[in-house]
Amino acid sequence: MTAGAGADARAHGARLVVVHPDAGVLAEAVAARLLTRILDIQSVRTPVHVVLTGGTVGIRSLAAIAAHPVRDAVDWTGVHLWWGDERFLPTGDPERNETQAREALLDHLPTLPPHNVHVMPAPGDGVGTPEESAALYADELSRFTPDGGAHLAFDVLLLGMGPDGHVASLFPGNAALDTDGATTGVHDSPKPPPERVSLTFSAIQAAQEVWVVAAGAEKAPAVASALAGDPVTTTPAAGAVGTQRTLWLVDLAASQHHALSR
């Protein structure tokens, strides 16, 4: 297998691990890879459904897309953007993934139709609990799910990962891990704020491609645990798999653990 300049790619079971030198190069590579993937899909069909992620590297990747020369080659009228999770905070709160994504990328895409941006409802926008927000988001997803399909098969679903191995807002040992349906309300998150909304494993695993993005030495144990196939109850990222492809896009520091070390 080959990788881009400066990257090291290795197969790990059913997953492909691509290692970049540092977090900055990783963010730029994620941006280039996502733009290329969208263009490839648009060459044969439309629309394209992409799930965005927050976090330091996730938002840095979105900013890299905004600055990328290929950005305007994408037909953004044919791209629908979703989120894997959201902090249950008021619209415009700086801690919301949506707010950060708008500042980093969405506000720089003048041809992106507002109705193509599917945000998780915030408190004060007609919902009072994470469960109500999750139910409305599930309804929105169902509008784009083909007849007979259980879930919308996202083309690319981006996920960050925490040092504890959480993805989206699915934390180790949290009751949300066992939720049925496409979405779930989350309470007692160990990472503030305590209330969140998240896609479930069943929705994540319906995506055609799942890309897990992780940087930093503090993530290395969780990266190794997930790739070793440890239980999702202890390392939720182990359950982040796509139907066609699963990519782990990491920096060198996050790869330095057991079988992933050079």
Automatic annotation (TrEMBL):
One of its GO biological process terms is: carbohydrate metabolic process
What is known about what this protein does?
Answer: Hydrolysis of 6-phosphogluconolactone to 6-phosphogluconate.
- At the top of the EC hierarchy, this enzyme's class is hydrolase
Species whose genome carries this gene: Oerskovia turbata
- What's one Pfam family here? Glucosamine_iso
Q: Which PANTHER family does the UniProt record give?
A: 6-PHOSPHOGLUCONOLACTONASE (PTHR11054:SF0)
Q: What is the lineage of its organism?
A: Bacteria, Bacillati, Actinomycetota, Actinomycetes, Micrococcales
Q: Note whether Hydrolase occurs among the keywords.
A: yes
Q: Which SUPFAM superfamilies match?
A: NagB/RpiA/CoA transferase-like (SSF100950)
* Keywords for the protein's UniProt record, in alphabetical order: Hydrolase
Catalytic activity from the UniProt record: 6-phospho-D-glucono-1,5-lactone + H2O = 6-phospho-D-gluconate + H(+)
Give the record's pathway. Answer: Carbohydrate degradation; pentose phosphate pathway; D-ribulose 5-phosphate from D-glucose 6-phosphate (oxidative stage): step 2/3
This one is known as 6-phosphogluconolactonase
Give any GO molecular function from the UniProt entry. 6-phosphogluconolactonase activity
Domain Glucosamine/galactosamine-6-phosphate isomerase: where? 22-248
Q: What is its EC number?
A: 3.1.1.31
**Recorded family membership:** Belongs to the glucosamine/galactosamine-6-phosphate isomerase family. 6-phosphogluconolactonase subfamily.
Q: Which CDD domains match?
A: 6PGL (cd01400)
Task: Cite the Gene3D superfamilies for this sequence.
Answer: 3.40.50.1360
Top-level taxon of the source organism: Bacteria
